[in-house]
Design a protein that fits this description.
By secondary structure, the protein is α+β, with helices and mostly antiparallel strands. The chain has a single domain, classed as Immunoglobulin-like. The radius of gyration is 23 Å and the shape is globular. Keywords: Signal. This is Secreted protein.
Length: 168
Amino acid sequence: MRSITRAALVGAAALPLAMAAPSLASATTAADVTFAYSSSGSTVSNTITNNSGTPLQCITGLAPAPGGVLPPIEDTIGPGQTIYETGVIPTGTTVQTVTGIPDGAYVVLASCGSLDEPMSMWASDYPGLETYLAMFPFTTYAVQQASWVATLPAAGAPAEAPGVNFGS
């Protein structure tokens, strides 16, 4: 009878640990998601590396950057990003591409969020971002790749040849 009682107690003690194991396995870290931006012509690309172990919903968005300068975060988050690409990003490395962008200077931002519980979100770092991330009722991370200003060239304008001097 003692062995049955002991087995019942061990089983009762192990059950909470077993139930906690899935949440421990799905714990996220800041390093689970990285972004790397690039631009060419009227296209901006974001290479997203997702090491979270689960698919994520991600967005790469652009907002105006008047004068080619990073605007205050309130000017970027308030009006939102009207030029963007969004989609589910599987684990591994995926390129999210925004095409057909009008000429101008833009701040490029990205964020990814988990599709299931426990909810986590990663956002490209930006001065003042911490204040906004603190408002979310789930785990948030500022991704090391900061938001980036890209100036896209005029359509059809010839690119300047490097090293050409039309002076004296």
